[in-house]
Amino acid sequence: MYQPLQLETLLAKAGCEPDLATGALVSPPYLSTTFERAPDGSYPRGYLYSRHANPTRHQLETLLAHLEGGQACAVFASGMAAATALLQALEVKSHVLIPKNVYYGVRNLLEKIFVKQVLSYTTADFSDLESVRAAVRPNTRLIWAETPSNPLLQITDLSALAQLAREVGARLVVDSTWAPPPIQRPLDLGADLVLHSLTKYLSGHSDVMGGALIAREADAFFERIRTIQQTAGAVLDPFSAWLTLRGLRTLAVRLRQQCANARVIATFLAQHPGVIRVHYPGLPDHPGHEVARRQMRDFGAMISFEVAGDATRALKVAARTRVFMRATSLGGTESLIEHRASIEPPDTSTPPNLLRLSIGLEHIDDLLADLSQALED
Ligand SMILES: Cc1ncc(COP(=O)(O)O)c(C=O)c1O
Q: Candidates 3.90.1150.10, 3.40.50.300, 3.40.50.720, 3.30.420.10; correct CATH number of 251-374?
């Protein structure tokens, strides 16, 4: 008997199911929206219409479920479409608990859409589990963690939070976009669901929008998510699914190099006189360092840092970079720098002097030289 395959092996063969008709090693993207019925009216190959199911999408969902160690996966047109489907699957009047530091789009989604209709939500400090426990309400049905968090890279102890969620009868979903497998696998730590923006590391080339929900169990709750996917229709299109499979082939090596670059850059920034604070869980003085060491295989490739000075100084540093490109988003092969507060809503708690880096695959010397010259007085 073979051992179960390592994640790196699964990734290297992503999208590689020899085509039955031609023997093509790499499966083609199945762009067809519709599928042939047999003379008796049945669909013997299982596909009838692409909103309902599509072979390329199915290939991606199967692989993502394996990667996270889950029983089922549904992919969507964006990370936010995946988040929407999850919130829609909750019972009316459920309470959702989210971290104070969370991707602002998730808070926006709850605030602008769901609280006006069917749900309530509050926030807590997820780096302190007593604060989470105190915020739980009798109708809390979903605890939403994001670790490392966007943009402050706070770390949540997922095993302890999963235990708490079980005690209070809530589901735990972890937005693991910033630390995909093989770096972090929240279901192994007791989470019920994992959310990914496929737009980031999993597709990995800044040319796909997508989202995924992976469930530990293919239970009735997941079936509701599947029904929302198929019926509401915010599905991932087949070509984006194919591009994501193609990107996944190099995920493990991309992450290895991006994390290695990030470790060097975080250490450089921590020693730089023009920087007053570095948010990166790989630094030994980061408050979440020990938990991150336990629950992650590496510390990821996202770094936020605060420059000595105000927003104007931070914007000036970003304006000077030549290798780092000024843009939002993350997880591509190219390094990005972003003044985060100016893209978030006016009531953001992101420090005005904070710059966020997504570390790419460029040569480390070029990245260091670029930051060094940008931080000069
Ligand atoms: C942590 C996190 N979750 C979810 C999203 C939303 O993903 P998408 O832009 O694919 O809708 C983002 C986007 O930046 C993110 O950073």
A: 3.90.1150.10
**Is residue 103 annotated as a catalytic residue, yes or no?**
yes
Predicted confidence at residue 19, as pLDDT, reads 85
Q: List Cα–Cα distances, 204 to 13, 46, 250, 251, in angstroms.
A: 16, 30, 9, 7
* CB of 209 sitting under 6 A from ligand 1: yes
HSE-CB of 373 using CA atoms within 13 angstroms: 11
Kindly report whether the peptide bond that precedes residue 284 is cis, defined as omega within 30 degrees of 0: no
Classify domain 7-248 by CATH number: 3.40.640.10
pLDDT tens figures, 225-277: 999 999 999 999 999 999 999 999 999 999 999 999 999 999 999 999 999 99
Q: Is 146 in the pocket of ligand 1 (CB under 6 A)?
A: yes
Q: Whose CA is nearest to atom 8 of ligand 1?
A: 79
- What is the enclosing helix (H) or strand (E) of 63? helix 55-68
Q: What is the pLDDT of residue 2?
A: 63
